[in-house]
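sry for the spam today, last one i promise. struct tokens for design, 121 residues
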């Protein structure tokens, strides 16, 4: 079994900062790319940011310069620091990870349960 557990969401005001975290646990041999997606009401889920095991990152254009993704491989954890938050950042944020459970197996995607981020005055 593998679990991804997010934490750190909440209600903030425009311009505030927030950090969300996602910890992977269970039978894990290797974690490759980890990422954050978000889904606003009535919209499709979209990639916000991703980070490879070696630390290469990519971001959705609208969050570049405001959001920073990072990871701690020793803790199987990925973080998303969100600065200068805007109302349009309001969404459920989901953690995603490409995980190989055993040395002889192939990797597959796992998802967290989501954490709500609401930006409102």
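last one done:
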């Amino acid at each position: 079994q593998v679990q991804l557990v997010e934490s750190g969401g909440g209600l903030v005001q425009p311009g505030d900062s927030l950090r969300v975290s996602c910890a992977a646990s269970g039978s894990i041999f290797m974690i490759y790319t980890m990422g954050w997606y978000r889904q606003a009401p009535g919209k499709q889920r979209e990639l916000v940011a991703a980070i490879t095991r070696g630390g290469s990152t990519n971001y959705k254009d609208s969050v570049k310069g405001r959001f920073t993704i990072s990871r701690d491989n020793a803790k199987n954890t990925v973080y998303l620091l969100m600065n200068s938050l805007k109302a349009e950042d309001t969404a459920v944020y989901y953690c995603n990870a490409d995980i190989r459970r055993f040395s002889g197996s192939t990797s597959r995607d796992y998802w967290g349960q989501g954490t709500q981020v609401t930006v409102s005055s």
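DSSP finds no helices and eleven strands in the chain. ok im logging off now
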